[in-house]
Fold this protein.
Amino acid sequence: MTAYFGQAVYGAPTKYGDDFITDRTAADVASAAETAAAIRANGFAALSEAERLAWLRGLKGCYNVRDMRRVSSAIKSLAPNISVRTDWRRDEVPGVADLDEYLSAVRSVQAMYNYYPGLQNASIYGAALYGSATYRAQSLGVLAPPASMANLDYDGANRIELILQGIYEQEYGGNNGT
């Protein structure tokens, strides 16, 4: 997934589970890349009104501060003591340290709620999944966040939000905490 940070307007979700994006596809990424190329070639004003609106609302094929704010806000609602930034501005480009903290927060909330679908005896093995230098969670068939945010693809982005959505469903039975 190509990350076009800072290109979308963001807003805090009203019902986190309703706002998780868990169905990104290669076609979404291709569409976003095509729109970004059109903007670079001809400028934002050359897009149709529908294309401009879609870009400003946040294309599923992009991962930007709107996504980070939604995920970070969900983490904070599940685990207020986990350190994760939630006040991303549209014009910001997160640095490596920001992205590392963000992904660490996803892992922390997953461990806190012991949410490891696909793994038997999760309470025994859960913490060990992230302690290994050779991050093995996916090879064990466990829903896990990506190993890093570098070269994030649509599957990794989906997995981040699937984890949080699963925790909300596990904890709140489908009403997403509202």
Summary: Residues 1-17, 121-140 have pLDDT under 50 and may be disordered. Residues 6 and 39 are 14 Å apart (CA to CA).
